[in-house]
Amino acid sequence: MASGDFCSPGEGMEILQQVCSRQLPPCNLSEEDLLQNPHFSKLLLSLSQHVDESGLSLSLAKEQAQAWKEVRLHKTTWLRSEILQRVIQELLVDYYVKIQDTDLTSEDKKFHETLEQQLLVTQLTQLLGPSQERVMPPLLGLEKADLLELMPPSEDFVWMRARLPLEVEEQLKKKCFTLLCYHDPNSDSDHETLKAAKVWKLAEILVSEKQQCQDAKSQQKEQVVLLEKKSATYSQVLLRCLALLHRLLQEHRLKTQSELDRINAQYLEFKCSAMILKLRMEELKILSDTYTAEKVEVHRLIRDRLEGAIRLQEQDMEKSRQVLNTYEVLGEEFDKLVKEYTQLKQTTENRRWALQEFNKACR
C-alpha cells in the first residue's frame, strides 16, 4: 500500500484482484474506478478485515454457522423419527396388500395388528396433547387414560417390539438396495452380500459426489465473476475503440469524401453509358428481327412510289400556285367576274334541275 490514503496504479489493480475477488462479494470495479476514488481502496481493505465473502460481519457469520449446526442436528433427529414412522406405515401398507393376495401366518397377522393398534393409539395421544397445557376441552371428550385402555396387551406389545427392529431393518435394506440400483443400475444383478458392501460405501460415494458438485458450483461461480469482469473490461475496450473510430471518421471523412464522390460519379457515368448501349443494342435487335430483307425491299418500292406521287403533287401544286398568282394580278374586277360567274352557274344549275323535274312530270 502506498503512503497515506492513496494507492498507486499497480497497487490499485492488486487490491482489485485480492480484495474484490476473494474477500468481498462480487463487484464490478476497474482500476480506473479506484484511481478516480483514491480513498475507496483503503475502505475496501478495512471492510475486508470485518466481513466474509457473503458480506456478513465475522461475528454474525460465526453465529450463523453455529445456528446452522444446531438446525442440522435438529433436522437429523427429525429425519430419523420421520423415516422410522414412514417405514412402519409402509410395513402396514404392505401387510394390507399381501393379505389380499396371499394367506399370512397368524404370527404375521398378530404382529401387524398389534403394530397398527399401538401406532394409532400413540398418534391419537399426541393429538390430545398434555392435559395441563390444554385450554380447550379435549377432542370428543376423550382423555389420555381413555386411549391407554385401547393399548394392546403388554405381552403382545413386548413381542411386537422385539420383532419390530428386524422388520424395520429388512424394510430399510430393501430401500437401500433400491437406492443402490438407482445410483448404479449395474449392481441390480449382484449378490446380496456384494450389494450390502456397496451400500455400506454408498454414503461416502454420495458425500464425495456432493462435494464434487459443490466444488463445481464454486468453480462456476468464480468463472461467472471472471466472465463478468472480462465482459466489463472488453466493453470498456470496445467503447474506446468506437470512440477512436468515430474520431478517425470525423478527421478523414472530409478528405476522402470528394474523391469518393468523383469515383461514384464516374461509376454512374459508365453505368449510364452501358445502359444506353444496351438499350440501343436491344432496339437494333428488335429492328433486325422485325424487318427482314424482303420487307425492306418492299418498303423501298413503296417509298419510291410515294416519293414519285409526292413530286407529281408538288408539280401540280406549283402549277396551281402559278395560276393563282396570275389571277391575283387581275385584282378586284376579276373577283367580281368570278362571283358573277358563280351566281350564273348556280342559277343555270337550278333551272336545269327544274327543267328536268318538269320533263319528268310531263311524261
Automatic annotation (TrEMBL):
InterPro entries attached to this UniProt entry: HAUS4, HAUS4_met
Any one GO BP annotation for this protein: centrosome cycle
Cross-referenced Pfam families: HAUS4
GO molecular function: microtubule minus-end binding
GO cellular component entries: centrosome; HAUS complex; mitotic spindle microtubule
Entry protein name: HAUS augmin like complex subunit 4
